[in-house]
Design goal:
Residues 260-352 form the Transglutaminase-like domain. The protein is α+β, with helices and mostly antiparallel strands. The protein has four domains: 8-129, Immunoglobulins (Immunoglobulin-like, Sandwich), CATH 2.60.40; 144-455, Alpha-Beta Complex (Coagulation Factor XIII, Chain A, domain 2); 474-585, Immunoglobulin-like (Sandwich); 591-685, Immunoglobulin-like (Sandwich), CATH 2.60.40. It has 14 helices and 38 strands. It is globular, with a radius of gyration of 29 Å.
């Protein structure tokens, strides 16, 4: 045996093309499990003689934990374990085709070769990932277009706003950029599971169910110094406002650069987007899901209780809440623990809301189990079921006496317009029917009862349940808020309160109205406006009352979520109270992107971004942030001079695209009056 270290040709280009890993920019071989890859090495004199290969991963590799494999040259690829097949030999080099099992542990492997009685010689390292293109893999996804979208696509669209007014923004997942793969591997090695028992943790890394759960815990900072620190206070000193991020790359890089200190700050879509990046990077098909009117049921009774005072102010009582929207993930894999029906999309949620097994992690919950009310199945099905299905109870609470009176209950409020990005298009797809049967249908109520029964709720006396008298009282009037005019930051807000007398005798109604700026979680931040009116409604009469909240009245109070909750609590003389409420999300003004000329690989192209100040006062502290995978490295930040009333700014900058194809450029513009105006543009890059 030659004593020299063998030199290895990893055939990076060819192997990457075969394994759908060409998008990684790495000098290291990155391949997917259950599929052959070819390497050539020299330094062995009689290469075909009794060569033994050793592939090992983790801190203490062993055959028992499937983190160590030794295999010699065989004539065919093994279906079960690792195998090596001789491709060709020359006087001093040998080409070998190596394959790993479908259920191999994923991660970084060390590969060495031993010839005869000599000691093993290292061939180097490679990274092994999940393989959704391979039918034997737990993450196998038969539809190739879906593999392209949910594993290889670096751009995503996240839906937000509220159910009456769905908005969206782009996100740069960037799972193949720079050092992201190494960061994802180090996330796994910093989990509580790994710290407690590294050998067992690594041996479980063949299982997407296990890794999905571990990573849902690691993406939030709670418990384990994970990646992102959540903040829902409306005050973001000492970090970045959650709505200012445009991609996961900056967050993951910052986490690594700071010596793995949690990045400040995130809210639900940030956790979901970062988890999407990590799972797509590792090869698990993953997407973000937005649920509108999303329930946070803290006490597992599948009910959300909301409290109001006599003036119509929403009270922070109890741990339950309803968010305008909430974003989580779905990942695609089989559930051998539950059976074939429960495979496919699995819900994972990295936002720290409730503990599961003592730490902030959530899922995987089978989406099929949620739809069928199988809330006793692993993991965290009751919480996810409530997010899309809980009943809402609205109470009037008197703080002086501690008495609460039910105003009304609603079973069709929660879990609306559940949305995700379309495959191969920048459109919204509604997946509500995949989570539940039609709202209000008999089947949907049956499933709800089934879930309550499984949680042991149907027989228990429920102290918060309405009594017979409360249920039977029917309101005398109906009310709603209608939007009159545009919902834009910088413009006055015009609404109509519509009240209708449902009875055939006249009614006198005292109405207490409030408007509060809120976060997207409907947490109240500051009061903007209040008013009260007394009205008499003739039999069956409908009346409209215009409400105007001027821009200067709300401008100082508005949060960066741009959400306002208006409430009218109507006290009907000799009747029951009626609560009228609307959550309003305002739109930012628009921003324009223009690409001058053709975008070509490795050639400069000029991009122009234009913004017109829509208000009659100056805006200052203007900053433009630009990012986009394969269009520029990292993030470009440009300062823009102040803009007078109605003034237009135009900013030009240059890009040098690094790869051909349709690429997404994301822009985020902020100033003292408008936070995080986002837009994106598809740039078609040609060779």
């Amino acid at each position: 045996i030659a004593a020299t270290q063998p030199s290895t040709n990893w055939h990076l280009k060819e192997n990457a093309r075969e394994h759908h890993t060409s998008k990684f920019s790495s000098e290291e071989l990155i391949v997917r499990r259950g599929q052959t890859f070819t390497i050539t090495f020299n330094g062995t004199e009689r290469p075909e003689q009794n060569l033994i290969f050793i592939a090992e991963t983790g801190p203490k590799p062993s055959k028992a934990t499937k983190t160590l494999a030794t295999f010699d040259i065989s004539s065919t690829v093994s279906k079960e374990g690792w195998s090596a097949v001789l491709q060709s030999t020359s006087s001093n080099s040998v080409s070998i085709s190596i394959s790993s099992p479908h259920n191999a542990v994923i991660g970084r492997y060390r590969l060495s070769v031993q010839s005869g009685s000599s000691s093993p010689a290292s061939l180097g390292t490679f990274v092994l990932l999940f393989n959704p293109w391979s039918s034997g893999d737990d993450v196998f996804m038969p539809n190739k277009a879906e593999c392209e979208e949910y594993v290889l696509e670096e751009f995503g669209i996240i839906f937000a706003g509220n159910k009456n007014h769905i908005s969206s923004f782009g996100w740069n997942f960037g799972q193949f950029q720079g050092d992201i793969l190494n960061i994802c591997l180090s996330i796994m090695d910093r989990s509580l599971y790994y710290r407690q028992d590294p050998i067992t943790d690594v041996s479980h890394r063949h299982d997407p169910r296990y890794l999905g759960r571990v990573l849902s815990a690691m993406v939030n900072a709670n418990d384990d110094q994970g990646v992102v620190l959540g903040n829902w206070s409306g005050k973001y000193e000492g970090g970045k406002n959650p709505s200012s991020w445009t991609g996961s790359g900056e967050i993951l890089q910052s986490w690594k650069k700071s010596g793995f200190k949690p990045v400040k700050y995130g809210q639900c879509w940030v956790f979901a987007a970062v988890l999407t990046t990590v799972l797509r990077c590792l090869g698990i098909p993953t997407r973000t899901i937005t649920n509108f009117s999303s329930a946070h049921d803290a006490d597992r009774n599948l009910r959300v209780d909301e409290y109001y005072d006599a003036d119509g102010n929403h009270l922070e009582r109890g741990a339950d809440s309803v968010w305008n929207f909430h974003v989580w993930n779905e990942s695609w894999f089989t559930r051998k623990d539950l059976g074939p029906l429960y495979g496919g999309w699995q819900v994972l949620d990295a936002t720290p809301q409730e503990e599961s097994g003592g730490i902030y992690q959530c899922g995987p919950a089978s989406r099929y189990a949620i739809k069928e009310g199988e809330v006793d199945l692993d993991y965290d099905c009751p919480f996810v079921f409530a997010e899309v299905n809980a009943d809402c109870m609205y109470w009037n609470y008197d703080s002086a006496t501690g008495k609460k009176t039910l105003i009304f209950s609603k079973s069709t409020e929660i879990g609306d317009s559940i949305s995700t990005k379309a495959v191969g298009r920048d459109d919204r797809v509604d997946v509500t029917r995949d989570y539940k049967y039609e709202e209000g249908s008999a089947k949907e109520r049956d499933i709800f009862k089934k879930a309550r029964k499984k949680l042991g709720l149907e027989d228990k006396f429920d102290p918060t349940a309405p009594t017979q008298e409360e249920v039977e009282q029917k309101p005398d009037i109906a009310g709603k808020f209608k939007v009159a005019g545009s919902l834009e930051v910088g413009k006055d807000l015009n609404l109509l309160l519509v009240l209708e007398n449902l009875q055939s005798d006249a009614k006198t109604v005292n109405v207490n109205m409030t408007a509060w700026s809120t976060l997207y979680t409907r947490r109240r931040v500051s009061e903007i406006w209040k008013d009260s009116i007394s009205v008499t409604l003739a039999p069956k009469e409908e009346k409209q009352f215009p409400i105007m909240i001027k821009y200067p009245e709300y401008q100082q109070q508005l949060t960066t979520d741009k959400t306002i909750q208006v409430t009218a609590l109507c006290h009907v003389e000799d009747g029951i109270q009626v609560l009228v409420q609307r959550n309003i999300t305002l739109d930012n003004p628009g921003i324009d992107i223009r690409v001058h000329g053709e975008a070509k690989v490795n050639k400069e192209v000029v991009v122009e971004v234009a913004f017109t100040n829509p208000i009659d006062t100056e805006v200052k502290d203007c900053v433009l942030q630009v990012e986009g995978s394969d269009l520029l490295q990292g993030i470009l930040e440009l300062r823009i001079p102040p803009l007078k009333a109605s003034e237009k700014s135009s900013t030009k900058f240059k890009l040098i695209p690094s790869e051909a194809g349709p690429k997404h450029l994301l822009v985020n513009f902020s100033c003292d009056k408008f936070a995080d105006i986002k837009t994106f543009k598809v740039v078609n890059v040609i060779n």
